[in-house]
Amino acid sequence: MNQKQILCIEDEAAILLPLRYALEREGWSVSWANTGMQALELLAQQSFDFIILDVGLPDLNGFEVCKQLRQKYQTPLLFLTARDDEIDRVVGLEIGADDYCTKPFSAREIVARIKAIWRRMEVQTQNIPPQPPIIQTEITLHSATWMCNPQSLQIQYHGQMLQLTRYEYRLLFLLIQHPEQVFSRQQLMDHIWEHPEHSLERTVDTHIKSLRQKLKQITPDDPIRTHRGFGYSLVGF
């Protein structure tokens, strides 16, 4: 079995050292970045199985680091935050974090949360029907052609690759799979988010707005239909 690679983005050695010790006791390899820019450089050089990201970094805000890395990477991520404000938790989950932990914390708790996230990911993978690796899912809707590759988590719109975050991809892929079907905001959260109980319905609206902006960069047509007071659907055949 390959050794798990963990990237810990934390500028305080007093927090990092006991955490690193606990992670390495699990047999995992730990890389350390003490700034957001250093972390992004490391991510460009190698792949990781998990990212631990402190919100308070000396250069970039942890939320900004998360936004940048989610444009390219789908690595599971846990936020460390010094505050227990609900808005911090909501923002962190909305921009693509898988979990969060408030300081002070025990290293054992972080290890347990990492394992729990990996278990959820394994269950989700097992529940996805296997598809031939060389076949792409293609659905043509009116004048728009969607090319979906579940293996690489990529979607093309009108022949152009979309740069999507993890939740944007999941949201759009679900709508493409079920054209014309109307999903309520709660249904979308239950289908897509790992922690729907921590999210607000406006989280879905935020991601729909972001998706629309990216689609309109390719064509002014809007394939996502809003059903006021209920939810969303994708324009059908």
UniProtKB/TrEMBL annotation:
The modification 4-aspartylphosphate is found at residue 54. Residues 5-118 form the Response regulatory domain. Residues 136-236 bind DNA. It comes from the Bacteria. GO terms for molecular function: phosphorelay response regulator activity; transcription cis-regulatory region binding. This is Two-component system response regulator CreB. PROSITE patterns: OMPR_PHOB (PS51755), RESPONSE_REGULATORY (PS50110). One of its GO terms (cellular component) is protein-DNA complex. The lineage of its organism: Bacteria, Pseudomonadati, Pseudomonadota, Gammaproteobacteria, Moraxellales. SUPFAM superfamilies: C-terminal effector domain of the bipartite response regulators, CheY-like. SMART domains: REC, Trans_reg_C. Residues 136-236 form the OmpR/PhoB-type domain.
